[in-house]
Task: inverse folding
């Protein structure tokens, strides 16, 4: 007897973000200095990145594997204006690190905003698979953290000396990086 099986073809994500760390340093001037570090793999030669509105780039805003690289500006396959990260010369089998640095101005807002980059998909390349993203926020001395809403995973532990307790991160900043 013979058994025939028919399989449906599925598109495979060509980019995978294994881990990301986004750091935001909020200043007293209602601005945020941002650093986004991604460990990823990709078989694409260019990776589209959508940055938040009002971005001001720092010196050398893009590094790939620690090497300063220029962000490319152009249109994606859907005709949207985008920035692109060049990935020429990188092996799809080896992970690499992408680091973006930029500043955000909170014009007319009561509190600074923390907007992170996204990697939109288009007709040629679907959006990447994202496994884990850490967010680290540094507040000015005159501000305090009140809490958060949303589907967050608790990454902090509570310490106590018998009189008082305080939160501490499960992993240090250096361990995350």
Result:
């Amino acid at each position: 007897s013979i058994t025939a099986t028919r399989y449906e073809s599925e598109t495979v994500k060509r980019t995978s973000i294994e881990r990301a760390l986004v750091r935001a340093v909020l200043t007293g001037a209602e601005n945020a200095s941002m650093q986004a570090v991604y460990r990823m793999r990709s078989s694409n030669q260019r990776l589209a990145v959508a940055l938040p509105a009002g971005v001001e780039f720092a010196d050398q805003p893009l590094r790939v594997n620690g090497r300063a690289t220029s962000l490319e500006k152009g249109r994606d396959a859907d005709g949207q204006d985008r920035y692109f990260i060049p990935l020429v010369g990188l092996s799809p089998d080896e992970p690499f690190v992408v680091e973006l640095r930029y500043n955000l101005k909170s014009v007319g807002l009561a509190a600074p905003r923390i907007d992170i980059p996204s990697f939109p998909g288009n007709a040629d390349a679907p959006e990447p698979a994202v496994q884990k993203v850490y967010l680290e926020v540094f507040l000015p001395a005159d501000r305090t953290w009140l809490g958060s809403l949303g589907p967050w995973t608790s990454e902090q532990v509570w310490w106590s000396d018998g009189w008082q307790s305080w939160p501490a991160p499960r992993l240090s900043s250096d361990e995350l990086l």
Observations:
- The longest helix spans residues 173-176.
- The mean pLDDT is 83.
